């Protein structure tokens, strides 16, 4: 029904297993509720003077208890729609047997025959629902045909109408509680399933954007090599000519030096991108402080003080190129916006490793905080030399995608002065095993 519609609507990968029609633990829990209700109904019937064959009744209720215990002791697993239908069919037969022993359809609790088919209508495919509906018709007919009359003790315990009235009261109360509990449980499962599928779809869309962007970056890196080499050559020749012909024009010399420095920085970025995928068995792990320093090093000479606060005893972590590049983007963004200083603060405990990057700039605009990390979102005010320029708005998107891929969760916010970004990893996902084997070294075939 609705769950089936959701699973078909968000079928993300071909051939993947479909979602459970209803969870096994939900069936077990509903059966315990039914067992408790049946036991309460039997006790109530005895209290108002009903004559019951307790042996067969206890046996029928005991079968449901045994089934639940066996299911609880078995290993956790997913169940199919067919198995769910069989279990609901057992519940239907068990209720029908109890009704046939306690007056048949004249028993006020006959309305509980609707419980299994209600569960099926909200959770099972059409074929299993039709089968259970037919079984309900058969069980209702058999409960009416094989019913044993329900008699009551004469005397002051109850008159003829009072047992029926009290039984109807108990039936309505127990039925209302059961159906309300079941509806609440199914609604919670539907919400959880919808949220999980929505999160998976968003993660897949972000991964697709990142893969597409990776192809564009690779093509750009390939094409930019020759133009950058030309810029460096021409800027060097112009600097020599300016020094010879215009020695008094220091402003031109500074501009040319900045141009050459930017071209060299672009070249270094392309080189680091080209070497990011190489496998180096000796430096797969490094102390946390060293990884932070490696990420901050390209921005040390940009006129902004970068202060690193690293507590003693910091663990070693996996030295992943994507992780370093993502954290470097966070530092670059902080340096671009900082007035004087960028603070990198590390902390850790037995469960988590945390890094915080904070600057003393204007901070994130409050209106954009919920959208931080989306692609092509930028409010960059200036370049490294203080001049205005227009960015692409991909830095934080790339950083967020790469760091979340490594298992981190990120928090963006503002402090009293400036912005701050917190990166938090579960310790077991990023901590390096320093005593583990490195593995085989790659063969040199040249």
Automatic annotation (TrEMBL):
Main location: membrane
Residue ranges crossing the lipid bilayer per the database entry: 29-48, 54-74, 95-117, 129-147, 159-183
Domain spans labelled Histidine kinase: 219-429
A GO CC annotation given for this chain: plasma membrane
EC number: 2.7.13.3
Keywords for this protein: ATP-binding, Cell membrane, Kinase, Membrane, Nucleotide-binding, Phosphoprotein, Transferase, Transmembrane, Transmembrane helix
Signal peptide segment: none
SMART domains from the UniProt entry: HATPase_c (SM00387), HisKA (SM00388)
Top-rank EC class of the record's enzyme: transferase
Record membrane topology: Multi-pass membrane protein
Compartment annotation: Cell membrane
Catalyzed reactions: ATP + protein L-histidine = ADP + protein N-phospho-L-histidine
Pfam families: HATPase_c, HisKA
InterPro entries, per database record: 2C_sensor_his_kinase (IPR050980), HATPase_C_sf (IPR036890), HATPase_dom (IPR003594), His_kinase_dom (IPR005467), HisK_dim/P_dom (IPR003661), HisK_dim/P_sf (IPR036097), RegB (IPR047770), Sig_transdc_His_kin-like_C (IPR004358)
Molecular-function GO terms, alphabetical: ATP binding; phosphorelay sensor kinase activity
Protein name: histidine kinase
Organism, scientific name: Paracoccus shanxieyensis
């Amino acid at each position: 029904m609705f769950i089936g519609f959701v699973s078909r609507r968000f079928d993300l990968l071909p051939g993947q297993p479909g979602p459970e029609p209803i969870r096994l633990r939900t069936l077990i829990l509903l059966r315990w509720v039914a067992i408790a209700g049946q036991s309460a109904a039997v006790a109530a019937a005895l209290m108002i003077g009903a004559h019951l064959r307790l042996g067969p009744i206890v046996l029928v209720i005991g079968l449901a208890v045994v089934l639940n215990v066996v299911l609880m002791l078995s290993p956790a697993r997913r169940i199919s729609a067919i198995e769910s239908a069989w279990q609901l069919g057992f519940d239907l037969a068990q209720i029908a047997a109890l009704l046939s022993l306690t007056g048949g359809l004249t028993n006020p609790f006959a309305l509980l025959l609707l419980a299994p088919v209600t569960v099926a209508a909200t959770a099972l495919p059409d074929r299993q629902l039709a089968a259970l509906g037919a079984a309900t018709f058969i069980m209702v007919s058999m409960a009416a045909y094989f019913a044993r009359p329900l008699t009551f003790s004469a005397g002051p315990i109850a008159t003829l109408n009072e047992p029926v009235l009290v039984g109807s009261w108990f039936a309505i109360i127990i039925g209302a509680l059961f159906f309300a509990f079941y509806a609440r449980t199914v609604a919670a499962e539907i919400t959880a399933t919808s949220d999980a599928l929505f999160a998976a779809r968003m993660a897949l869309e972000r991964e697709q954007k990142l893969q597409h962007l990776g192809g564009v970056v690779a093509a750009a890196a390939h094409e930019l090599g020759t133009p950058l080499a030309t810029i460096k050559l021409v800027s060097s020749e112009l600097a020599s000519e300016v020094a010879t012909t215009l020695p008094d024009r220091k402003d031109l010399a500074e501009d040319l030096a900045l141009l050459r420095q930017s071209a060299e920085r672009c070249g270094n970025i392309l080189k680091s991108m080209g070497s990011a995928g190489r496998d180096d068995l000796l430096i797969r792990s490094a102390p946390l402080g060293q990884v932070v320093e490696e990420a901050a090093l390209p921005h040390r000479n940009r006129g902004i003080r970068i202060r690193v606060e690293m507590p003693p005893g910091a663990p070693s972590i996996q030295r992943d190129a994507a992780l370093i590049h993502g954290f470097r983007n966070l530092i670059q963004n902080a340096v671009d916006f900082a007035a004087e200083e960028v603070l990198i603060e590390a902390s850790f405990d037995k469960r988590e490793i945390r890094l915080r990057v904070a600057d003393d700039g204007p901070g994130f605009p409050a209106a954009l905080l919920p959208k931080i990390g989306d692609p092509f979102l930028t409010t960059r005010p200036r370049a490294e030399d203080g001049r205005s320029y227009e960015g692409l708005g991909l830095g934080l998107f790339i950083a967020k995608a790469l760091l979340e891929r490594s298992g981190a969760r990120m928090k963006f916010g503002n402090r009293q002065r400036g912005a701050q970004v917190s990166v938090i990893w579960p310790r077991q996902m990023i901590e390096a095993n320093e005593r583990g084997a490195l593995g085989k070294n790659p063969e040199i075939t040249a």
